[in-house]
Amino acid sequence: MLIFRQLFDEESYTYTYLLADSRVGEAIFIDPVKSKIEQYIQILADLSLTLKYAVDTHVHADHVTALGDLRERLHCTSVIGAATKADCVDYKIKDGESLSFGAYSLVAIATPGHTDDSYSFFLDVSGEKMVFTGDTLLIRGTGRTDFQNGDARMQYSSLTKKLLTLPPDTWVYPAHDYKGWTRSTIAEEKAHNPRLQVKNMAEYVALMDSLKLLNPKFMDVAVPANLACGQVK
Predict the structure, then answer these.
(1) Which residues form the Metallo-beta-lactamase domain (predicted)?
(2) Residue 9: which of 47, 29, 38, 35 has the closest Cα?
């Protein structure tokens, strides 16, 4: 049986996902936040789980990752996409590879654009499909593309050629939401996400270039720390 939990960091509006196979007790965290590590250790203990992997969808700019702390305290394997510059991680996963936990496999999908190292992760549990999209596809939005080698053209390709080609009933679980929404579907985002109501790549690039966004308030701390797996100097 799949164990699934959606945990929330109220300071950075980050969702962290716990996935586990209850039959063998193996677990994965996606996008864990450093300040929440005691909560993570507690829920693993409560559910009698052993953490196998700690995964980041990309090098975050809005919070400090718990990858390094989880690896140090629980001896799990830390994972980020192959393009990352975070050389501290144990394993740089490539497009199409998977991470197994018990009877389940989490499949990596390279989705660059928000950053050059952005990945999404897909899970199919007896026909119920879930995709963890990081900052690439948000609920009624998409991730900004104006720093960390972001590229609106690459993001448009990641969206239209990869994520939006998933089955329409796939549940979408983003890394953040600022309005309290917890999940959507591929079909719902195709129909109602304003960033996706464009005719072509040129319109999408123009839309993203028109955004005038302030840098994340923790960016100066978070990026260098996350390149070191969450070790704050």
Answers:
(1) 13-176
(2) 35
CA dist 198 → 156, 170, 182, 209, 210 (Å): 10, 22, 25, 14, 14
Distance separating alpha carbons of residues 75 and 227, to the nearest angstrom: 19
Query: ∠ CA(193), CA(174), CA(2), 5° rounding?
Result: 125
Distances (CA, A) of 204 to 154, 176, 177, 199: 11, 21, 21, 8
Percent of the chain exceeding pLDDT 70 equals 100
Separation of alpha carbons 203 and 7, rounded Å: 35
Residue 233 has pLDDT above 70, yes or no: no
Does residue 126 register a pLDDT over 90?
Answer: yes
Tell me: pLDDT of 31 over 80: yes
What 90-94 contacts at long range (C-beta under 8 Å, 24+ apart), as own/partner pairs, is 93/119
Taking the C-alpha atoms of residue 185 and residue 171, their distance in angstroms, rounded to an integer, is 4
Is the whole model's pTM more than 0.90, yes or no?
A: yes
Distances (CA, A) of 189 to 124, 126, 143, 173: 19, 23, 14, 12
pLDDT tens digits, one per residue of 52-71:
999 999 999 989 999 999 99
Task: Tell me if 171 sits within 8 A of 183, measured CB to CB.
Answer: yes
Tally Cβ neighbours within 10 Å of residue 24.
14
Q: Which of 21, 72, 64 is nearest to 228 (CA)?
A: 64
